[in-house]
Amino acid sequence: MSAKSSTSTPNRLVLALVGLALVAFVGVVAFLSAGEGADLPSLDEVAGAVTIDGEPIPVPYPEDTATPDPAVGLPAPVITALDYADQPVTIGGEGRAQVLVFLAHWCPVCAQELPTLRSIVDAAGVPDEVDLVLVTTGLDPGRPNWPPQQWLEDAGLGSVTTVRDGAGDPMMRAFGLRAYPAWAVVGADGTLLARRQGLLPAVGVAQLLDAAAAS
Amino acid sequence: MVVNRFVGLLAILTLVVTVAAVVALVTRRVPVWARDVALPVGTLIALGATLGSLYYSEVAGYPPCTLCWYQRIAIYPQVVVLGVAAWRRDREVWRTSIPLALIGIAFSVWHIVIEQVPSLAGPCDPSNPCTILWVEEFGFLTIPTMALVTGAALIASTLLARTDPDRSPR
């Protein structure tokens, strides 16, 4: 096939089509948009009141995961937050070991993690001496899967203790974590045993649970 | 959301038109009328993609991620490039349009890959990760999928426009 160029007569069809398309598109979208907007809870209704006692972990989670985490062994901050029944839950301090999982409702990597968490919970894979605590963080009503408690219930994790981070992620920041999903293991003596960021396979989650149980 | 469904239907229509154009090109049976409307239709597709993308960011409030911007860079200018070409009946516009479309398609493909396997892009950046699924219509039409369809449609339309009329059935 050979190509030929013709620039003789301007194509009036173009102007007509483009004009019609512009008007039609704007009209249809405006019509369809009218009255949209579901009755969903606001950020203030979902974000929890978070009280942090003690010093936040001063060291951010290292970018280079090959580097040993310098925060391991430091005292974890003691945090009081609310669960979705508005009951206070204490994180950190001496007592039971805890594995915290920070999940953002809109984060697809967090969504990838949910089946792993569910399989562990369903298989009674959480040691008796360890509390698995989900923390809904990165709260944003404009992003997918809002509100987060419904998202977790749909994933079959409604029975796991879930606490609400505040707006701006104060809980997660107190642990020096910056990306979702994130993990923090607090030993029975209140020290930080491990932190992770990103997707963990079931083996990785089991290692964190074992580390918590061993404390 | 009803608007998402509408935009998804436009993307499906574009996909159907593209497949028909590819079949015509491969079988070398491009009707004259198809060759004549190829550039105006390509302009409309580029305009629709641009308006749809602006709707998502400016009205629906879905902030464009970095990869979205690269795809926008490849698609937005096509409205002018193809519009002027359609107006002037410039059948050689494929030389400008196809490289732009291919650049956009390359970014779309990577964007689709990380949408399907988000962990490939690492943990979610709190600001605006490209792995967020803002739109998913008919189970497969996400924003980069629609950009990919647009790129393919623009390539097909400019190739249709350059076919030799002497070899086309009337």
Report what the structure shows:
The complex is a heterodimer of chains A (215) and B (170). Chain A has helices at residues 12-33, 43-46, 108-122, 148-154, 170-174, 202-214; strands at residues 51-53, 78-82, 88-91, 97-104, 130-137, 162-164, 182-186, 192-197. Chain A has a 5-stranded mixed beta sheet with strand order 6-5-4-7-8, covered by helices on one side. In chain A, strand 4, helix 3 (108-122) and strand 5 (130-137) form a beta-alpha-beta unit. In chain A, 31% of the residues lie in helices and 20% in strands. Chain A is elongated and about 80 Å long. The model of chain A is unreliable at 1-8 (pLDDT under 50). Chain A is α/β, with parallel strands linked by helices. With 170 residues, chain B is mainly alpha-helical. The relative contact order of chain B is 0.21. Classes of the chains: A alpha/beta (215), B mainly alpha (170). The interface between A and B is large, with 46 and 44 residues.
Which structural category fits the helices and strands of chain B? Answer: mainly alpha
Q: Distance between termini of chain B?
A: 43 Å
Helicity of chain B, as a percent range: 55-70%
Counted beta strands of chain B: 0
Strand content of chain B: under 5%
- Give the overall average pLDDT of chain A: 89
Give me the strand/helix succession of chain B.
HHHHH
Features:
heterodimer, A: 215 residues, alpha/beta, five-stranded mixed β-sheet, three-stranded antiparallel β-sheet, disordered N terminus, B: 170 residues, mainly alpha, elongated
How is this structure best summarized?
Chain A has 215 residues and is of the alpha/beta class. Helices cover 31% and strands 20% of the residues of chain A.
Topology:
The complex is a heterodimer of chains A (215) and B (170).
Chain A: H1 12-33, H2 43-46, E1 51-53, E2 78-82, E3 88-91, E4 97-104, H3 108-122, E5 130-137, H4 148-154, E6 162-164, H5 170-174, E7 182-186, E8 192-197, H6 202-214
Parallel strand pairs in A: 4-5, 5-6
Antiparallel strand pairs in A: 1-2, 2-3, 4-7, 7-8
Chain B: H1 2-26, H2 32-59, H3 66-88, H4 94-116, H5 143-161
